[in-house]
Amino acid sequence: FEIETEMTIFALENNFRIVEEPIEYRDRPEGSESKLNTYSDGFKVLKTISSLFRDTKPFAFFGIISAFLLIVSAIFFVPILSDYLSTGLVAKFPTLIVLTVLMSLSFFSFFCGVILTVLKKQHRQNFERNLNLLRYMYNKNIDKE
After folding, report:
1. Inter-CA distances, 99 with 5, 87, 90, 110, 113, Å
2. Are 48 and 2 in contact (CB under 8 A)?
3. Global confidence as pTM
4. CA 42 to chain centre
């Protein structure tokens, strides 16, 4: 299941032509059982989709993680801030430390997305450059013949 998903995403991302080929289906032989498992196969497909999403759209993937961590830390920080503003004391230091770590992880995740997006863009440019070079070399060899 994973390979079909990966091949489709790769072809779409690189603007390859996709062609449907008709095939024939036959009934399963009498007495044989399916090797499919709904939950484990579904989990494998979801894992592949999330991995491909991370690889093809790193800014969106890490941005979602960053936004989630930022929202969670902000929600839990509001009561601590209101207590501090009213009393001048921080009553929940362990929570504040955890929120500081979550906020830091949020920023790290955001910048990981930015960096990986730039790297992905460079990889794409190199891929297209190599593809154009191969086309040029192929056309040059055809012209010689």
Report:
1. 37, 20, 13, 16, 21
2. yes
3. 0.72
4. 17
